[in-house]
Design a protein that fits this description.
Blueprint lengths: L10 H10 L20 E8 L4 H19 L2 E7 L3 H9 L6 E4 L2 H9 L12 H4 L2 E2 L2 E6 L19 E2 L7 H17 L4 H13 L1 E3 L4 H9 L6 E5 H10 L4 E4 L3 E3 L4 E4 L1 H7 L2 H9 L4 H9 L3 E2 L2 H5 L10 E3 L7 H9 L4 H6 L2
Parallel strand pairs: 1-2, 1-3, 6-7, 6-8, 10-13
Antiparallel strand pairs: 3-11, 4-12, 5-8, 5-9
Helix pairs in contact: 3-4, 6-7
């Protein structure tokens, strides 16, 4: 079995693990180990969600260089990106992912239920297999002409909202739950008033793209809408790419979004990449990777390193968590399954 409760460093123990090519960092290799000699070459595939393209491009380069230096093994890491729910379904339908790094735990649970990931995956790595977090914020154009500051402003008649579709996008699910929690606080959990609030909010959505990156393109490149409900990291990236053109607004209440990672055991066993897949995900917790995560606008799970980026993130935001909704399995069944609350509100 793959090891549990992994540490954040590489250290001598990890070097020993590399040297033996087996042990606590992963299953013993199958007879087809995917390697060719001491200086072998191996390909692994990371199926991820929309806004992680730039992060994993940088991470893959750093990890590959480190891994080759430590083991002599050259890596070719293939990236795949799209709406998190769509990506999960693609793996279930046969996409050969060695690892998945998706927007929410429930998307990985879908792959587990298809028999491709072993049960207990959420305990494979630290912090519920969530090496970084994010939250949901608003992105507006410079000057904030519509004076948007909180969720209440998104239900005004004159405000056009851009947010992706919860049926295909993990970000959209976090968006929905953050707004629902805000309305719950505002209306003392009166469900009729919460639903009315959410109908007004979703009635103002002009375009509902399949993924978070598509929503950013609609808002930034196509110029639609007055506000983008966005991953914090996506908003930070947009402001960096277009200096002076956008502003990030932190609402009074949001949600602690925890993207999750897992080894796709069925594929990794078949490909002989189980151990390398494990090393790949484990290194996300290393100090070097945690700082890279911070540089790309994600919140490092290492609290000490997170504090190094307190000028980048609003660490004083009031954040609910998925536990406030009974966990992802319950939340998905209540809000996002066919015929659930979202369908009722959006009129499907």
């Amino acid at each position: 079995m793959k090891g549990k409760g992994r540490g954040t460093g590489l250290s001598a123990a990890l070097v020993l693990c590399f040297g033996l090519m087996l042990g606590g960092c992963g299953k013993d290799a199958e007879s087809k180990d995917g390697l060719e000699g001491d200086k072998g070459y191996v390909t692994i595939t990371n199926v991820s969600y929309d806004p992680t393209r730039e992060l994993y491009s940088a991470y893959n380069e750093a990890f590959s260089a480190h891994y080759e230096e430590e083991t002599g093994i050259k890596l070719n890491i293939v990236q795949s990106h799209g709406g998190s729910g769509s990506q999960a379904r693609s793996v279930v339908e046969g996409a050969s992912a060695d690892v998945v790094t998706l927007a929410l735990a429930h998307d990985i649970t879908l792959i587990e239920e298809a028999g491709l990931i072993e049960s207990g995956w959420i305990n494979e790595f630290e912090r519920d297999s969530s090496p970084y977090t994010s939250t949901i914020v608003f992105l507006v154009r410079a000057g904030n002409e519509k004076d948007i500051h909180d969720w209440d402003d998104l239900i005004r008649n004159e405000v056009g909202v851009i947010s992706p579709d919860p049926k295909s996008s993990g970000a959209a699910c976090w968006n929905f739950l953050a707004a629902w929690y805000y309305a719950g606080q505002k209306f003392s959990n009166d469900e009729a008033q919460i639903r009315d609030f959410m109908r007004k909010l979703y009635g103002n959505i002009l375009v509902m793209d399949s993924g978070a990156r598509g929503a950013t393109t609609t808002f930034v490149e196509n110029g639609q809408g007055d506000v983008l409900v966005s991953w914090e990291n996506e908003a930070i990236s947009t402001m960096k790419e277009y200096p002076g053109k956008y502003e990030l607004i932190s609402p009074s209440v949001s949600i602690l979004a925890q993207p999750s990672v897992a080894i796709v055991d069925e594929n990794a066993d078949k490909n002989g990449t189980q151990k390398i897949a494990c090393d790949y995900l484990e290194w996300l917790y290393s100090s070097d990777a945690q700082r890279l995560i911070g540089e790309y606008g994600y919140r490092p799970s290492d609290e000490t390193i997170l504090k190094e980026y307190e000028d980048k993130f609003d660490l004083n935001m009031k954040l609910c968590t998925i536990a406030d909704f009974g966990g992802w399995d319950k939340a998905f069944d209540v809000y996002f399954k066919d015929g659930g609350v979202f369908d009722e509100i959006y009129g499907n």
